[in-house]
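thoughts on my protein:
***
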Amino acid sequence: MLDAGVSADQFRVAAETGRIHRMRRGVYVLEQAADDRTRYAQNVAAMLVTLQHHFAVGDSAAAFHEFPNPWFMPWTSRATTIAGPKSRPDRRIRGDRTSRPVETPWGLAQDPVGTAMEVARALTLPQALMVTDHVARRLAGTTDRFELASARCREAARETLCRVANVPAAQLADPAAESPAESFCRGHMILCGFDELRCGVPVRGRSGAQYFIDILLGNLAIEVDGRVKYEKGDGVQVLLDEKRREDDLRAGGLNFHRAFAEDLFAQPDREMERIRERV
C-alpha cells in the first residue's frame, strides 16, 4: 500500500469507515458484492491470494465459471473447495498435482468440463443437467440455434463430457437447453419415464414462421418460462406475442403445455403430473 502512495493511517481510516472491506488477514476489497455468487467467489479468491500454486475446484470453481446454481440454496452456504500440491484437510485443501487449471477473472480454477462433472456427480439428475447442459452449450461454441439443436452438436458435447465421467448427466447433456429451468424440467421428465425428449427444436408454424420449442415430446410442445418474462414493462406485448406464436404452432398440429419455472422448482412432482395429463 505504501508503494501505491497510501499511508498506514489512511489505510486504517479507510478500513474503519467501511471504504474497504477485510476479507481475511492481509486481503481487502473495495466493495463486497451484493449477490451471493459473487460474494462467495470473492471469499474463495481471497483465500487463493494467500496460496501459491493452488486453484478453485468443484463448487468454488463453479462459482468462478459462473455456472447456474443447482443447489437451490445460497452460494455462500457452499464450502470453499481448493486444490494444491499438498493435501491439507484442516484447511479443506485437497492434493492435486496432475490437473491443469485455467485462468478466470477470479483466479485459477479447475477447467469447466472437470468442474461440471465433479459437481454433477453429487447431484440428482434434474439438478445435474442444470450444470452439464450449461457446459455443453459452452462446448458448442456457437449461438446458432439450428446448430445447437443438431445431433452432431449434441453428440460432440456428450462425448467430451463422458470422457471425464461417463454418468447420466453427461450422457444426456443437451447444448440446445436455454435455461436451468428447462434442464431441470427435462431431468424430471426423464426420471418419470419420458424419452425422446429434445430441446430447442426448430419448428415452423402454420404461417411458415420459424420457432424454437423449449422441450418437444412427440407433438407436445413444453415451454418453460419465469413469471418475470411477463411482468416486465412490456409484459402485455410479450403475452400477445406468445399467444400468436402458440396459435400458429397449434394450427400446425402441436399441443402446448406451459410451465412456470417458479412452480417447477417448488413442486416438480406436481408439474410432472400436469404433463402426464397432457400426453
User: Anything to note?
Assistant: The CA atoms of residues 28 and 198 lie 47 Å apart. The chain has 13 helices and eleven strands. Confidence is low (pLDDT under 50) at residues 1-6. The two ends are 66 Å apart (CA to CA).
